[in-house]
Inverse folding.
């Protein structure tokens, strides 16, 4: 792997232009350069912590009337899924993600009586296709059609674990017995040393939230720091005092919350007329309480969200608009899994965007991006804008 020097680089909230040197897969040096016009904005590698690669690019045009409508349409179509077509669609999402600057992606992968193991098989094959260019974390996701309160559903998820996912997930709010379902999920996770990423409270009825029960169970089992709540839309409906109490409990459970601004804005509060409730969780209040908050794209061109192509800059813009997350550091942390800056000695997972500043990148979301994974360029324009270090 040759050493590289990247010139005309700017950083968010840091004055002047710089050169960045990469060596042996790490950031070797950052040096200020005078008299240079900015060419590239450097960000840590983007991280998409909530995707559905198996369903991506499955529709040409679809507008769900509700979340229930999307679920019904998906169930019908997924019955025809094969491992081969899942692999092709997942590969398309992975390649798009790499081109956008994503260096790590976590995907919920359906496990239920409709697709059995076909989605898992297709996504795992697609993951192997991009090895070394994109880190893919696979969640064996027990969908709303695989209620873990039932023994046969637990057995199905046990078979999925044999395929070696990194996470287990479930849609708890659809269960006939959420307490029993979550207990079964945690037992499987602990028995197989797997982390948990839940679809939780993806609705706007504060009276039927499961987050308090789930947080209590996480603490009781000593699983702090090993459980993620995705969606958590209903938190936005609570009055300030109960919201604050629940957020403090989640902080004690050390959960991570993943907000999905695009899909939640589209799907929540779909009633007659213009929606009045945003459907996005309380991002700023969670951050203020010390809860880790991340953004994800969620669905891409399927029955739940018919737009997008996996660009985390688009997700950042949607999140900034929906939640008024104005602090650039918090926004960068949300799309880079908490990594805020390029630092000497860190792994050389980074993206250079043809922009003069972070706001410029958000405003235009330019397609021209140079992407590095472990110091190796994996996407974007090549050697014309790179040169060997003078001392190499």
């Amino acid at each position: 792997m040759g050493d590289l020097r990247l010139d005309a680089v700017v950083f968010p909230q840091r004055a002047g232009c710089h050169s960045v040197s990469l060596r042996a897969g790490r950031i070797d040096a950052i040096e200020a350069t005078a008299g240079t016009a900015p060419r590239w904005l450097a960000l840590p590698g983007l991280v998409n912590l909530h995707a559905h690669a198996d369903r991506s690019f499955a529709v040409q045009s679809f507008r769900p009337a509700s979340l229930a409508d999307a679920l019904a349409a998906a169930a019908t179509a997924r019955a025809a899924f094969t491992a081969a077509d899942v692999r092709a669609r997942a590969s398309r999402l992975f390649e798009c993600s790499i081109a956008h600057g994503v260096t790590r992606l976590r995907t919920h992968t359906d496990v239920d009586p409709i697709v059995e193991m076909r989605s898992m098989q297709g996504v795992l094959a697609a993951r192997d296709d991009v090895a070394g260019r994109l880190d893919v974390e696979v969640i064996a996701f027990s969908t709303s059609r695989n209620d873990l309160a039932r023994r046969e559903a637990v057995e199905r998820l046990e078979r999925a674990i044999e395929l070696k996912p990194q996470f287990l997930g479930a849609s708890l709010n659809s269960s006939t017995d959420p307490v029993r379902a979550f207990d079964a999920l945690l037992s499987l996770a602990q028995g197989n040393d797997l982390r948990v990423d839940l679809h939780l409270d993806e609705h706007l009825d504060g009276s039927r939230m499961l987050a308090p029960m789930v947080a209590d169970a996480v603490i009781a089992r000593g699983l702090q720091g090993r459980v993620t709540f995705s969606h958590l839309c209903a938190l936005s409906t609570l009055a300030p005092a109960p919201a604050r109490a629940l957020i403090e409990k989640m902080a004690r459970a050390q959960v991570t919350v993943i907000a999905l601004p695009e899909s939640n804005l589209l799907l929540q509060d779909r009633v007659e007329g213009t929606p009045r409730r945003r459907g996005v969780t309380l991002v700023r209040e969670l951050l203020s309480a010390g809860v880790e908050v991340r953004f994800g794209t969620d669905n891409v061109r399927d029955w739940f969200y018919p737009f997008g192509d996996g660009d985390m800059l688009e997700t950042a813009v949607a999140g900034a608009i929906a939640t008024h997350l104005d602090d650039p550091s918090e926004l960068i942390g949300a799309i880079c899994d908490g990594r805020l800056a390029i630092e000497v000695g860190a792994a050389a997972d980074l993206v250079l965007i043809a922009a003069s500043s972070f706001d410029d990148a958000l405003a235009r979301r330019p397609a021209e991006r140079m992407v590095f994974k472990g110091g190796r360029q994996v996407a974007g324009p090549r050697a014309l804008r790179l040169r060997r270090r003078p001392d190499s």
